[in-house]
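Feature request, filed as a ticket because there's no other form

It would be nice if the structure record came with a short human-readable summary line next to the tokens. Right now we just get the raw output. Example of a typical job, pasted below so the devs can see what we mean:
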Amino acid sequence: MVLHLVPRCSARLFWASPGWRRTYTQGTSVGLTSLGCPRHRHSPMARRGYSSASGSPEVMLTPERYPVQRLPFSTVSEEDLAAFERIVPGRVVTDPEQLEAYNVDWLRSVRGCSKVLLRPQTSEEVSQILRHCYKRNLAVNPQGGNTGLVGGSVPVFDEVILSTALMNQVISFHDVSGKLVCACVL
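Raw output as currently delivered:
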């Protein structure tokens, strides 16, 4: 048996050969970019990591696209925003332009309509945020890197987005065992 090392997107490499195109219906075709592997570095898929969500076509709201109903959660009030500002001072985002990137998934297929993003730095801040949201019956949408491809990290309605992006500290490292306790993506 001979083992061959193949690239991760090997099937797509075949499709990337010059002139490859598959026509589905008259006038429409699917190139490599719609299959998830950028044709070149300036394609929309390749640019996603380097640009903000603005300037792109509007993504349909998830509740308009799929038949989902909002559960009986409360909505975020001014008092809630003030409480969040006390818990994570200076790290409460309510600007719609800044929120756009957190409301849309990586493939730009689903879009939520959250009006607040919280950026805690410690587990204590996360605990206080969740305690407040539990008392007020506010829906929470935890979000790591927001690189999911199927909308799992994107709010559906008006949930509070809890971003863990600022939780980026190595807490302890044991030299002998190599054990690492951290609050970051490795």
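Something like this underneath would help us a lot:
Residues 1-53 have pLDDT under 50 and may be disordered.
The chain has one domain: 40-172.
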